[in-house]
Amino acid sequence: MFIIRYFFLSLILICCTSIGWIISKKYKDRVIELKILQNALLIMQNKIKFTRKPLQEIFNEISKLDNNQIISVIFYKIGEKLKIKKIGQSIDEAFKEEKSWISLKEKDIKIFKNIGNMLGKTDVEGQMDEINQVKLLLDKQIEEAELEEKKNCKMYKSLGTIVGLMIMILLF
For residue 167, what are the domain limits? Predict the structure, then answer.
């Protein structure tokens, strides 16, 4: 009887601790995804400037270069949607479809969506300026995300363990 009781108490502690780690992982993932988006913008900027390929090809190429699967999927979907839709609609729909899988906040997504306003509509210099503007905004978001990560990751990990221990004590 005691073995079963200790088993379930341990299981509660493990579950609560795991929940804390999962929540803290969201903060780490957000920083990673923002950096990947920023890197993708740099690649996009170089491809537009030097190769002058169509946007659809650029987005498909970026999706193959990225090692983060969810961001790759988003870029692939944007590239596929560009066959029949405008860039702004394509970006908007791709992020809506994958929203449940990404750790980015709505503000982060909104900044990246701004790029759809100018890509393919202006000359190369105008597009470079727009990409630079979005990169600067993403820099600020990365700094904010890193601060949140430092502040919240340790807290949620500890909080999960503490809540698990409290439940164990109450049920013991």
Answer: 20-171
In a domain, 1, yes or no: no
Q: Is the pLDDT of residue 65 over 80?
A: no
Residue type, 81: K
Question: Does the pLDDT at position 63 exceed 70?
Answer: yes
Query: Which of 24, 8, 15, 26 has its CA nearest to residue 158?
Result: 24
Mean residue pLDDT of the chain comes to 87
Backbone Cα Rg of the chain? 21
Q: How many CA atoms lie within 13 A of 47 on its CB side?
A: 19
pTM, two decimals, is 0.84
Give yes or no for residue 127 having a pLDDT over 90: no
**Domain count along the chain:** 1
- φ/ψ of residue 103, rounded to 5: -100, 0
Tokens representing residue 110 in the block: 């909104």
Whether residue 5 lies inside any domain: the answer is no
Instruction: Answer positive or negative: Cα dihedral of 133, 137, 138, 143.
Output: positive
Yes or no: say if 168 and 9 are a contact pair by the CB < 8 Å rule. Answer: yes
- Alpha helix segments (H runs only) across the chain: 2-46, 55-65, 69-81, 87-97, 106-113, 124-171
d(CA 76, CA 54): 14
CA distance 57 to 147: 35
